[in-house]
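Hi F.,

I've been meaning to write this up properly since the lab meeting, where we talked about keeping a consistent format for the predictions we share between groups. The idea is simple: the sequence comes first, exactly as it goes in, then the structure tokens exactly as they come out, then a line or two of notes. No screenshots and no reformatting. I'm using this chain as the first example so we have something concrete to point to.
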Amino acid sequence: MTSKTDTQNPTQGDDDVRTAVREAYGARAREVAAQAPGERAAGVKSRFYDTTDGMPDTVVSYGCGNPVAIAGLQPGETVVDLGSGSGLDCFLSAQQVGPTGRVIGIDMTDDMLSLAEQNRAKVGATNVEFRRGVIEQLPVDDASVDVIISNCVINLSTDKDAVFGEAFRVLRPGGRFQVSDVVLLRDVSDAEHADLDLWSGCKSGALLHSDYAARLRAAGFTDVEVSITGGGEAAWASALINARRPGGANTGMPFLKGGQFIEFLAPAGLDTADCCGVDGKECC
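Output, unedited:
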């Protein structure tokens, strides 16, 4: 079964979706820069990140997981974060890869990039840099990256195949693709698919979980795992996704993982308090 996600709909073309996403997350960045991050962002970081001591309040997350917890990062590795936002996952990755490692955050939203740069100065992360770009066309050299992470961003793209192709291109042989994302447990309706608010809220653009795995394999990835960590009656669930570019000594070996699987949290524009895994509530 193939998701509707990459089927063009006259009400949500690529430019419309990208504009809606940029506006939604730009507004969030401006709120945070004005020292008003709100409970949605604070709730994600406080409930599901165990290692954010010393991070300024402006280093927020609107994600649906903690990709750093599953990435098994090693000193000296080069990491790329797709849709790096305020920089939280980049800064946590930088701590793990150490001074000999490198972290590159990619984001298309100028307000988020500005916030991330301000946060980088506050944190003093000298091994982190942020680049403006879209995840369908990464400003990163071929075969130059050890690990790709991302937190609830790939679902926002209208061309997932381009994202997976670019991820494969920039990874070294044996490189790891380890992300947290929203997936569909059933296809969405035409009305849901056409709703730009649901797109920017990380719902309507999500892939069916089986389609996600199939597209990664079609892009050339092996050792593909899609572990669903939420669900119930809702169409949407959070998933932890692992895959590897073939080659290197680790192909076929289990992924290094740490941390706990976490439940679906609402991204920007949705109400965290109503989402599953929070204070014992059922899935939204």
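Notes:
Confidence is low (pLDDT under 50) at residues 1-5, 7-12, 258-284.
The longest strand covers residues 171-184.

If this format works for you, I'll send the rest the same way.

G.
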